[in-house]
Amino acid sequence: MRDEPLDDADYAALTDLRYALRQFQAFSDAAARAHGLTPQQHQALLALRAVPPDQASIGYVARQLLLQPHSASGLIDRLEKQALVTRHIGGGDRRRALLRLTPRAMSLLVQLSHTHRDEIRRLRPMLNELLARFS
After folding, report:
1. Domain map of the chain by residue range?
2. Smallest Cα–Cα separation from 72: which of 92, 36, 97?
3. How far apart are CA 103 and CA 86, in angstroms?
């Protein structure tokens, strides 16, 4: 596959896909800001909502957001100050804090996730068409 030559249609498909992804990212960023969150805070809350509670650690957030652990820790500190996340000492390892979303965070996530799901459903036909160009 790597030796297969690229033609103008391949470059156009790559450009169009990257443009669609940037458009969705801009939509997502604006939606987060409209709810008083930075895009990174929204992503952290979403990651914490998606993971089993016994895995909801700063390390997990760092991996999901491609951050260094100290940067993820600062992000969690800011979320704590906004009363969106709480830290709890892990069961077996007292050095490891597990993170929990507060009811306020859950409410924000419900609103944002409905909005995002609706937008993805709206974009799905166009995204399917774009992805089919890579067959």
Report:
1. 8-132
2. 97
3. 11
pTM of the model: 0.90
Average pLDDT for residues 109-129, to the nearest whole number? 97
What CATH number has the domain spanning 8-132?
A: 1.10.10.10
HSE at residue 26, side-chain half, CA atoms within 13 A, is 6
pLDDT recorded at residue 94: 60
Is residue 7 scored above 90 in pLDDT? yes
Return the axis-axis angle of helices 8-34 and 39-50, rounded to nearest 10°.
90
Q: How far is residue 63's CA from residue 8's CA, in Å, rounded to a whole number? A: 36
Got the DSSP string for 84-125? SEEEEE-SS-TTPEEEEE-HHHHHHHHHHHHHHHHHHHHHHH
CA–CA dist 56, 87 (Å, integer): 10
CA gyration radius, the chain: 19
> Residue 127: exposed, middle, or buried by beta-carbon count in 10 A (0-12, 13-18, 19+)?
middle
